[in-house]
Amino acid sequence: SSGGPGSRHIPLGTGTTNLGMYVAAKQRVGPVAATVRGGYVHKFSAVSMFVRDTDAATLGLNGRFKPGDEIAASGSLLVQPLDLVALEGGASYVNRLPAAIGPTSNAISPGDHVVELKDSDFEAMNVNFRVLVEPSVNWDFSLGASVPLMSRNSGAVFPLEDQSESYGTTLVAGAIFRW
Q: 25 forms bridges with which residues in the sheet?
């Protein structure tokens, strides 16, 4: 569990288990390729050491935390005007439903008694673009950026990555070597 005894770092994740399903499709016609992707991720509740169960007989026992389920979609268009260079642009959307906290339930589902946290949902849309260069069969290089078009951060006091991931403009660079 994140934030456990002896931890000397701020917990940035929730330590919970996720189960997701995504569907993706790609169609290429000549030097142009279109890709779409969409999916849903269910996030299970789990005992967490940074949530206290105030309903327990002995106050201070660990409570349960359930990050909000997530709905995501993206699309991109890749154009390769030259053999060595490709340009890619697209958009991505994420909608994270409200998170919940509470005590562990004695029912079949231990998360039956968690209660939604007000204003803990999150929504964002980004545009992404990259330039890809492949000078040989061994090397790939890329340079790009992700720019937020719309972002509504959660009202969570503690900025866990599972709650709020609005970063502003992000630059990305990469190199791949294959032998």
A: 36
